[in-house]
Write a structure and sequence with these properties.
There is one protein chain. By secondary structure, the protein is of the alpha+beta class. Helices cover about 20% and strands about 20% of the residues. The chain has 2 helices and 4 strands, in the order ββααββ. It has a 4-stranded mixed β-sheet with strand order 1-2-3-4, with no helix packed on it. β1 and β2 form a beta hairpin. The radius of gyration is 14 Å and the shape is globular.
């Protein structure tokens, strides 16, 4: 039996936070891609939002990107949101 645990991400100074990848080297590499402009999109499963009681991001929302150590890495502003079937997500 699989047990699912709902997690909510912390809010810092009124902004939701977001973490990319696994803690450590992978997260740092993804943050570097994002800050340098090489990463401009991300995707998540709608069921994860539901399980975590998190609303889907909306255009204009700003999110704090969190480092492995919990410190602020950067702030991202959402410019586009699409909800599509997994099979329709482009490369």
């Amino acid at each position: 039996m699989l047990k699912l645990v709902a997690m909510t991400f912390p809010v810092i100074e009124g902004m939701r936070t977001i973490e990319f990848g696994n803690s450590g080297e992978q997260r740092q590499r993804l943050i570097d891609f994002l800050v340098n402009g090489n990463k401009r999109a991300t995707a998540g499963l709608i069921t994860d939002y539901e399980l975590e009681s998190e609303p889907i991001e909306h255009v204009g929302e700003r999110l704090d990107i969190i480092n492995t150590d919990g410190s602020l890495a950067a702030v991202v502003e959402i410019t586009r949101v699409e909800v599509v079937r997994f099979a329709e997500v482009p490369d």
